[in-house]
Amino acid sequence: MTSFNTLGLAEPILKAILEAGYTTPTPIQTKVIPACKADQDVIGIAQTGTGKTASFVLPILNKIATAPMRPQSKCCRALIITPTRELAAQIADNIHTYSKFMQVRTAVVVGGTKPGPQIKACARGLDILVATPGRLLDHMSTNAIDLSATQIVIADEADQMMDMGFLPSVRRIMKALPSKRQTVLMSATMPDQIRSLAKDFMQKPTEISVAPASRPIERIEQSIRRVEKAEKRAVLCDILSAKDIERAVVFTRTKHGANKVAKHLEGVGLSALAIHGNKSQSQREKALASFKAGTTKILVATDIAARGIDIDGVSHVINFELPNVPESYVHRIGRTARAGRSGIAISLCASDEIKLLRDIEKLIGKNLDPSSDERRNPSKTSEENRQKTPKQMKSANRSKARSKSKDNSQKRSQASDPSGDQGENISVSGKKAHRKPHSNGAKRGHPKKTRSETDRRKPAQADNTTSGLMRILSNANTQRTQTTSP
User: Fold this and answer.
1) Do 173 and 81 form a contact (C-beta atoms < 8 A)?
2) Signal peptide location in the record (predicted)?
3) 3-state DSSP call for residue 269?
4) At residue 78, what are phi and psi to the nearest 5 degrees?
5) Which partner from 164, 172, 242, 403 sits 20 to 30 angstroms from 448, CA to CA?
């Protein structure tokens, strides 16, 4: 079994790793660290929570330890670009942990804080600069930061930077770097846009993948609960009230939604805090610190904050709403089952989120909703049909056709009388409906006379008519005779 001692790292780094409690490198670390030490460009694809951060931080520290150099003013030897403030802070914490027995100049440059202290920190020169794209470009435009002497650049969580629209900014940063440099690109997924970025800015990169792209780690127990929107809050409270909840992260789609969910949970007696882009940096740091210390049991977050929650001991991830981007599902549930532990991911799915669920299932290659009628009925019907004989099938189809014809006839009859029985009799002859008014004195609902009764009355009516005519003619002849007689 590989150990950190076999990876050729400097003694101060090994001492810090041992003190941090790590003895065996993860698969991504075992492969990426030697490639980075050999100054190769590297594309690393690994699931969230597999130790990607240490896989690029340790080789950077090793180069600083083995080739010490005083950094130039406003310059940095290594640049780490990351999508969120939280992730930048987590990477900086890792650097401090592994460089405990070294002298390393590090600074974090992110938005949401005053630029003055950042400019001052960069002015003296840095070994490692950790930055988000937007604030880094701001400092570059004012010449507060100079990348002309940068030897190593790391693009961490490249797929999330793409999702957040940072790729144009990343390209501008890459163009400002020296052509002779080492480039490392780390990602949990590898969309085409990221491959295009790698093709444009990397030299014959070594691609290292320790797991299929976009597949969550197997230690996460995933499940779906079909719940309508109006019932989601009650179901969420039931889930979070369980005794096995140690620490839970609840994900919503919007910042406003995160605030509302956190407020509702607090209202029912569950300790919860919200973390999202509208919170100040100090608020976000306090929320994470409270969650990490166990003071706050539940953290309600948006997707932007998802990658920065690198905290061991998260037992549950709850998707209060499914993400619009399928890849975000992988990153969300990756907040649990970290550092070799297991975890539980529960997603609440409303009827209008079924398409989002199917997109997620397609991405991860797993059916999360096995009880769905949409998945089960087709095979069941097919099995029943295979058990029927051809004669039974023919009879069943004939019955269906008769039933359909009867239903259509009833619909036509109803369509011909939209107002119902309102003093009119309706007779249907052939395909057309004719309306006939009631006869004088006829009562609504009086039974119709049969055809035979009508036919029997016709001869009697004819006899009466003939007798009347005969009497008229006889009277006329009598009057004529009386008139002409002398």
Assistant:
1) yes
2) none
3) coil
4) -130, 135
5) 403
More confident residue, 327 or 6: 6
Residue 385: is its pLDDT beyond 70?
A: no
Q: What is the pLDDT of residues 390-429, one digit of tens each?
A: 555 556 556 556 655 655 555 555 555 444 444 334 343 3
* Measured CA distances, 395 to 399, 400, 402 (Å): 6, 9, 11
CB atoms within 10 A of CB 278: 13
Give the bridge partners for 349, in sequence order: 226
Tell me what pLDDT residue 414 has: 54
Give the pLDDT confidence score for residue 312 in this predicted structure: 79
CA separation for the pair 416, 434 (Å, rounded) = 9
Q: Give the CA count within 13 Å in the CB-facing half-sphere of 171.
A: 12
The number of domains in the chain is: 2
Name the one residue in this structure whose structure tokens are 């969650």: 291
275 close to 284: Cβ distance less than 8 angstroms: yes
Is 476 inside any structural domain?
no
Instruction: Tell me which residue range forms the domain holding 147.
Output: 4-209
Which CA distances in Å does 474 have to 168, 406, 462, 479?
116, 61, 19, 9
58 near 52, Cβ under 8 Å? no
For residue 182, the 8-state DSSP code is E
Distance CA 359, CA 373 (A): 17
d(CA 158, CA 187): 5
Q: Is 222 left (phi over 0), alpha (psi -120 to 50) or beta?
A: beta
pTM of the model: 0.66
Q: Is residue 25 pLDDT above 60, yes or no? A: yes
Q: How confident is the model at residue 439 (pLDDT cuts 50, 70, 90)?
A: very low
In a domain, 202, yes or no: yes
d(CA 57, CA 4): 14
Q: What residues have CB less than 8 Å from 345, skipping those under 6 apart?
A: 216, 220, 221, 222, 223, 316, 317, 318, 319, 332, 333, 336
Distance in Å from the first CA to the final CA of the chain: 154
What CATH number does the domain containing 35 carry? Answer: 3.40.50.300
Q: Which residue has the tokens 């009347």?
A: 468
E strand map for 180-234: 182-187, 206-209, 220-226
C-alpha–C-alpha distance, residues 249 and 103, integer Å: 36
DSSP, collapsed to helix, strand or coil, labels residue 437 as: strand
